[in-house]
């Protein structure tokens, strides 16, 4: 099984993301609120909420934070958030896809535009970039302390109904069709596996190398986007150079 390693391409940014843990919890709280508002606060009867709760657990979000978000939804809060997607290109022509949940589209559109253009990127029209990405279910299982061979993992993944397995010395990455996400998740959990990441994501069909002289600018652009309270996810087709390069 083969394909692009999403895990490999995010490791260089992991420390920066860890430093933003409080903001990440805030963003997940907004997703929990939205999912509970739309389908109820019982994850057993609301697959969308179950998915966000899995995301919260993988991010080590405190249970009190989760409860507050659900209580807010149950308490009659009438805040309305719209889902918006922005498309563009970062430094070096790297495709960028930004998903937001916002109660003010004008504010968010302006902020996203500034973050991209100030760092040498350009905005693009609807559909210009989205077709370069595929929506996939994505799981990461850390290999540290895991007594499972690659062949055993492959057998488990195939039994669960997943589509693709990527292996590295540090982790197993598993990809699946979005409609099979819940079934694959449940099957692997029943087999005793625990996920460090469990999410629906956008995976680029092809990667674009980030020029060495644009790496810092590209990272700063992503940081600026992720710092925006309305931005939930930033997806790129960036192929980051190895640190030793």
Question: What do these coordinates show?
Answer:
By secondary structure, the chain is α+β, with helices and mostly antiparallel strands. It is built from nine helices and ten strands. It has helices at about 5-10, 15-20, 20-40, 45-60, 65-75, 105-115, 150-160, 180-190, 215-225; strands at about 80-90, 95-100, 120-125, 135-140, 165, 170-175, 195-205, 210, 230-235, 240. The strands form three sheets. It has a four-stranded antiparallel sheet with strand order 3-1-2-9. A hairpin with a 3-residue loop joins β5 (about 165) and β6 (about 170-175). The longest helix has 19 residues, at about 20-40. The two termini are about 25 Å apart.
Write a concise keyword list for the protein shown above.
single chain; 245 residues; alpha+beta; four-stranded antiparallel sheet; 10 strands; 41% helix; globular
